[in-house]
Every structure is written in structure tokens, then in C-alpha cells.
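Protocol step 4 of 6: structure prediction from sequence.
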Amino acid sequence: MGAVAFFAGLLLFVMGLGKWQETGSPFWLYGSLGFLLVLVVIALIPGGGKGGR
């Protein structure tokens, strides 16, 4: 995964956390944490999610 995609994902995560603090809705928090988890898993796959080739 490229650096630009990683930072775009990180920006979306931070925006989700900000929305959670605004609204107090737990769905924003869970969605943001889930998104960050998916981002980390994709980053850890060899080849950046391209099948390791």
C-alpha cells in the first residue's frame, strides 16, 4: 500500500473519531476503530494486498 493511501486512511480514521466526539454515537467510534483495523491488516499482507506477488 502506498504512503498516500495510508495517510488518507489515517485521515478518515481521525475524522471518524472527531465525529464520534461531536455526536457521542458509539457507531462512529466502532466504525473508526474497525476501519483502522482493516487498514492495518491490509498493510500487513505481503505485497500490500496484491496477493504477495
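Step 5 (inspection) to follow. The chain has two helices and no strands.
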